[in-house]
Design a protein that fits this description.
This protein has 226 residues and is mostly helical. The chain has one domain. Helices cover 80% and strands 0% of the residues. It is globular. This is TerC family protein.
């Protein structure tokens, strides 16, 4: 294979890996914060179902990626959705992530009624801990997972573009990272904030590219109809 032909695939793969790392870490933090808001005895159940829902939704959206991308206007809508994700990421990065709680930190954190001991939970999670039920925490995670899993699949598909092999690798990688390395990634993003900023730039580029391509797709389709 010519090196000039290989270069676009390597660039796309690099973008996909960065997207997967950032979004897997963000999803883990959502799970951790929700778990920190329930009593200690119930946290393991919340974390298990939260991560299971994230993996299941990623697999589901990955299986219907081709059908999703065939819908006229979805590329444009996906780009707008990713821009909203970028805005949330920007706000989190600017606040230095004081309220972030990873799943393992949630397991070590004391109950809201506890005294010293264990890792400190984020202020938002601690404030929410009064009276949050297991069902409410799991539902909160599932709702967030639907958006974040769709974001992940659309972002990976947008970065992979016309490279189906890269798309498959990216979607498999997103599932593996969420299932096996979410805690590690969450801590890595918290410790090395620059990784989050690089991921934000890449996802913003992918979002703007999807909006550009999606707008042309919608305009061309409208012109054909008229």
């Amino acid at each position: 294979m010519d090196s000039l032909d290989l270069w676009p695939q390597l660039v796309a793969l690099g973008q996909v890996v960065a997207i997967d790392l950032v979004l897997a870490g963000d999803n883990a933090i959502v799970v951790g914060m929700a778990a920190a808001a329930v009593p200690m005895a119930q946290r393991r159940k919340v974390i298990f179902w939260g991560i299971a829902a994230a993996i299941g939704l990623r697999i589901f959206f990955a299986l219907i990626t081709a059908q999703l991308l065939a819908i006229i206007g979805l590329t444009l809508a996906g780009g707008v959705l990713l821009l909203w994700v970028c805005w949330k990421m920007f706000r989190e990065l600017r606040s230095h992530g004081e309220d972030e709680v990873a799943p393992d930190e949630a397991m070590a954190a004391p109950d809201i009624s506890g005294n010293a001991g264990g890792a400190a939970v984020g202020t938002a999670a601690a404030a929410a801990a009064a009276g949050t039920t297991v069902g409410a925490a799991i539902w909160q995670i599932v709702v967030a997972d639907v958006s974040m899993s769709l974001d992940n699949v659309l972002a990976v598909a947008g970065a992979a573009k016309d490279h189906p092999t890269i798309l498959v690798i990216g979607l498999i990688l997103s599932v593996v990272l969420m299932g096996a390395a979410a805690n590690v990634i969450a801590h890595m993003l918290h410790k090395h904030r620059w990784i989050g900023w690089v991921g934000l730039l890449i996802i913003t580029y992918v979002a703007l590219d999807m909006i550009w391509r999606g707008s042309r797709e919608v305009l061309n389709h409208t012109a054909l109809i008229l």
